[in-house]
Amino acid sequence: MAVVVALALFVSGCATGGTGARDEGPAHDDAMGSAVSSSLAPAASPSPSAVADPAEAVRLVKADPEVSAEVKRELKPCVSDGYPVDVSYGDLTGGPADDIVVNVLSCGDQVGVGSYVYREQGGAYHNVFKAEEPPVYAEIDRGYLVVTKQVYAKDDALSNPSSENVVSYLWTSGRFVLKYRTRTDYGNLGGEDESAAPDG
After folding, report:
1. Exposure string over 176-198, b if 16+ CB within 10 A, otherwise e
2. Of 31, 160, 194, 195, which is the most exposed, with the fewest CB atoms less than 10 Å away?
3. CA angle 19-25-30, nearest 5°?
């Protein structure tokens, strides 16, 4: 009987599934090269497992001469070694590797202070888009770069912007071209007035 129980435990242990991407281990410091700027350091194809380590994106932004000194000052750990960045990878520009979208946030209220897109070209990541008028946040949506900016009137609380602008860009002929713009105005009673029209 003991042999049967031991055999059952052995078989069930072998049948246990893995943990997906975690089986690969943590992302290494050389996943995207060290201090990458718009003209320096070799590029590598980021993998989904690299998303878990924002340190590489932090190095990328800090070494980028296109990023303002003010944003670089904001880019410091909020708690321990946790940097206020959101990083996503995807195909925006049709390049040889996934493009990298980095949003830098403020520590206290998590407001977006800068959004950047990096494209791999000739063995290096280059800055091909930046928006540094807070609050701003960039995302990849079905091949479009979608940038959201909340607009505040003088007396607006952080949680209650007066309006929101959403702009969609498409990579065309080597640059991002504005394709759609949507503005939502928030009324005092919670109503919304939304309009959208393609640019072209």
Report:
1. beeebeebbebeeeeeeeeeeee
2. 195
3. 145
